[in-house]
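ping. complex inputs:
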Amino acid sequence: MEKHIAIIDMGSNSVRLVIYYINTQGAIYKVDDLKRSIRLSGHLDEHGRITDVGVELAIQCLKQYKQLCDARDVQYIKGVTTAALRQAQNRDEVIFEIFRQTDIQFEVLSGEEEARYGYLAVRSSMDIEEAFIVDIGGGSTEITYMKERNLVHSISLPYGAVNIMETFFKQQEVLNKDDLKCFYNEIKATLKQIPWLKNKRCPVVGLGGTARTIASIHQYKTRYSFNSIHNYKMDTYDVEHIFHLLRRTPLSSRSQIQGLSSGREDIILGGVAMYTAVMNYIDVDEFYISTQGIRDGICLEILKQEVEQDLDEDIVSMHIKRFAHYYKINTKHAEHVMHLSVELFRQLMQAKILPYTEKEARLLAVAAFLHDIGRTINVYNTANHTFYLLSNVNLPGLSHRERLIVALIASYKKAKILRSRVHRFDDILNEQDEQLIKQLGVLLQFTRSLDRTASKQVEGVTVKYDGKKVTVECLVKKKRSIEIDLANEYIKHFRKHFGHLFEVKALKK
Amino acid sequence: MEKHIAIIDMGSNSVRLVIYYINTQGAIYKVDDLKRSIRLSGHLDEHGRITDVGVELAIQCLKQYKQLCDARDVQYIKGVTTAALRQAQNRDEVIFEIFRQTDIQFEVLSGEEEARYGYLAVRSSMDIEEAFIVDIGGGSTEITYMKERNLVHSISLPYGAVNIMETFFKQQEVLNKDDLKCFYNEIKATLKQIPWLKNKRCPVVGLGGTARTIASIHQYKTRYSFNSIHNYKMDTYDVEHIFHLLRRTPLSSRSQIQGLSSGREDIILGGVAMYTAVMNYIDVDEFYISTQGIRDGICLEILKQEVEQDLDEDIVSMHIKRFAHYYKINTKHAEHVMHLSVELFRQLMQAKILPYTEKEARLLAVAAFLHDIGRTINVYNTANHTFYLLSNVNLPGLSHRERLIVALIASYKKAKILRSRVHRFDDILNEQDEQLIKQLGVLLQFTRSLDRTASKQVEGVTVKYDGKKVTVECLVKKKRSIEIDLANEYIKHFRKHFGHLFEVKALKK
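pong. complex structure:
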C-alpha cells in the first residue's frame, strides 16, 4: 500500500519535480523537490512552435528527473504541463517526442483544471471558508472563487510572470511608466469581463512562486520572527509596497534583494505586477500565501482521497493526526491528556476561574495532543524539541499566531523561558497571549502528570469550587499512584497563575 | 532482541529512575528519567539505622517507579544503592523489606564499583585519554584516575553533598568561615593519604548532579551560546568563582540563582565545596562535565557490550553510527558522500589549495556523514533541521566547538546565513572557523550533488591542478547525469571561496 509517486510540472518558467511518499494510511509527505529554470516559453519560434533546442533542453532535464525517480523507487510519474504547451502550436509532437525519449506521459492541463488543482490544495491546507485563489504562473493566471469551501467560479487568463515581462515590460533595466500603464489597462479591461470578481468581501490566497517570493521578501524586510511562509498574512498595501521596491531596483541589482531567489530576478516584476492588478481590481485587503499549490492538488486527485474529503471536516484535526503519526507519538496517551486537559479547562471556564472561550480550548487541545512530539528528536530536552518542531514544521490550518501559541503551551516549563520566547516573537504575540500561554501551560503540565505512566490511571477530572478553594477530583483506579503524587506537586503552581487555592483529591471509582 | 531495562539508583539525596531502550543492534537510548528527592540520609536514627519512615518513603517512591516501568514494558529492573545504604546499620533489613514490598532487588554498590561505573560512562562518551574522574554524590565522592583510557586507580571517600552540609556546614543561612576552614582541613588531610593524586597533568571530569549544576550556573552567568552540558569545559578558577557566588548568597535566596534546580539549593554548597577542595589539592586547570554517569555505566555493564569495547575504538565514529541509525538516514548515501568529500578534501590539501590538516578532514567526514539527518524532521528546510539536530542533540566525543563546526558545515547553504549563525556563537567560534566552515560547506554541497540520486553515479574524484585551473575529474557510469549537471552548478562557487578556477570533467570508466 505505501508508495512513491512523482509529479513533474513543466511550466513556462521552470520544470519542477516533486516526489511524494504515501504511507499505508494514505498520508502524503513530500520527500524530494527539484526545480530547473528551463524557460520553455523563451524557446518559441515565430510560428508559436517550441524549437528543437527547447525540446532538447526539456528532455535532458526530464531524463535526469527520471534517474532521480528511479533512484527513489517512484512507482508512478505524472507529467503535467500548463500554459507553456497549451499555447504551443506543436504541442502534440513535443509531448510525443518527450514520451518517446523519456517514457514520461505528459498531460496538457486546461486552465480550468489548473484552477481546480490549486483549489484542492488550498482547501486541504487552509482553514478558510471564502476566498479568491490567485495562482500566477509563468504563462497564465488562474483565479478561483471559493465559497463555503466549494469551488464556485474559476477562470484562466493568458498572463503570467514570463509573458508579462516579454509582452509588456520588455526586460528593461528599469520599468517604463507607460509600459506599466498599458499593462494595467489591459488587465483591467480583461478583468471587467468577469462578472463574479466584484463585490465580494473575502481575502486573496496567492499560490505559486511569485506569491511565495512576495511573502519571503516581506518577511525579510519586516524581520518577521516566525519561520513559515504557508498561511502568512499580508495587507494588499504590503504587496503594492514590494512591487514599488522591485520597480525602483534596477534589474542588474535586483538579485541583492533579500528573499528573492536567484533565477527569478528577471521575471518577478511581471508576477508581482499581476498580483497588484488583480487585487486592486477586486478590491481586497487581505492577502494570504499558500505554499501548497497545483502539484499538491494533483497528488490529492491521484490518491482520490481528499477529493472525497468531507467539506465540513476540520482540517486542523486532520493534519494534527497526520503530524502525530509522522512523528510517531503514543496516540492513546496523547488523546487521554487532550481529553483530561479540555475537561479540566472547560470546568474551570464554567466556574469562572479561567476567562476563556472555546477558541482557546481548541488551542489547548492541539497543544495537549502534540505535547510529546519532541520525544522523536530526543528524550532529553523534549520540551525544547517540541517547541522547535511545532514552531518550525508546517501545521496547516492554523495561523502563525495560533501555531506559536500551541508550540509554547505544549512546551511550557517555566515562566522565565516563556518570557524570553514571547519576547523573540513580539511581532506576533502580546502580553495577553503570554498570560494565556502561561495558564494553559501549567494546566497542561498538570494533566500530563495525570497520565505519567500512559496507562489511564486517572480516568477523569471534576472541578469543585466552594468560593475559596478549587478541588480537582481525580477519578482513579488505585488510590495511591505516581500520577496523584506528581499532580500534587504541579498543582502548587496553580495558585500563582490562577489566583485561587487548589487541591487534588483522588476518588476511587 | 530489543528491550527496555530500568536502573533505579537510591542515593543519599534522591531516588532516580532511568529507563533505557536497547534496539536490535544493541544501541542504548534513554527513554525516561525521573527523580524524587527522598533525602534518605536524613532518615537515620542515632544508631545509624534508616528509620521506618525513611523506608516507607523509599518504598512508596519505588512502587510508583514500578508502575512506570510496567507501563513502559520494562523487562528488567536493576536497583542499586550507594553511600545511603552502605553506611546504614540496617541495610540488609531495608533491602529485604523493599524487595518484599516492591519485588525490586537492590544491590549495595561498593565505592570501588561506583567508581568503575562512572569510569565506564566517561570512557564511552568522552574522547579523553587521561583524567581524574570525580563523582560527587549525596553521601560519597569517588575519584578515579584514568590513563590511556584504562582505570588505573580509584577511591571512594565518605564525603558527599548531603553529609558535608550536615557535618560541616550545618545548613546555616550563610556559611561560616571557620566551618569551611575545618572542612578544607579535613579533606586535605584525607587526600594526602592518596599517593596517586599528585603530580599528574590532566583534567578533572566531573560526574553527577553537583557537576551538572556547576556547569549550568556557569552557562547562565556567561550567557553561553551552546545548548549542551556534556563535555562542557571550564577552568578550575570558574568553579571557585561559582563556589563564592553560592557562599555569598544566603540559603533563603539561593533558589534565585539561574541554573540551580529546585530541590538542590540546600545541598549544592557541600558538593561545590568538595569539588574546589579536590581540584585545589590535585592542582588541575581544566574541568570537564560529563552528563553520563554511573547509571549509564551500569547499563553498559548489564549489556556487556561496552565493557568489551576496544579501548582504541574511535568513540566519535561509534556514536555517529548510532546517531545516524537513530535518525534513520540512508547510510549508503551518507557513506558515499563522506568518501567523496574526504577524497576531494585530501587532494585539495595535497595540491595546497586548501590549507588544512587531517583534523579538519575528520570534522568534514562527520559533517558529510550526517548532512542529511534533518530529513527525519521534515523534507522542507532540511538544512535548518540538520543544524538544529546537530547543535541540540548530544554527539559524545566531540567538543562543543567541534560539534558546532560539524553542524554548520553539514547545514551550509549561504555565506550570509552562516555569518549570522557564527555571530550567535561568537563565544565559541572565531573568523578562521567561519572561513573553514564556508570552504568545507561549499565542498560538501558539491559532493552531495555528486550523489544526488543516491545511486553512486560518481564513483570517485581526482583533482588535477595545472597551476591555473583545478579540474575535478569524476569517474562516472554514464557520461550525462543529473549529478554532473548539478556539480557544474555548484563548482561555480569554488572560485570565490577557494581562489582558483575550477571545472568538472566526467570520465567514463
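The first strand of chain B starts at residue 3 and ends at 10.
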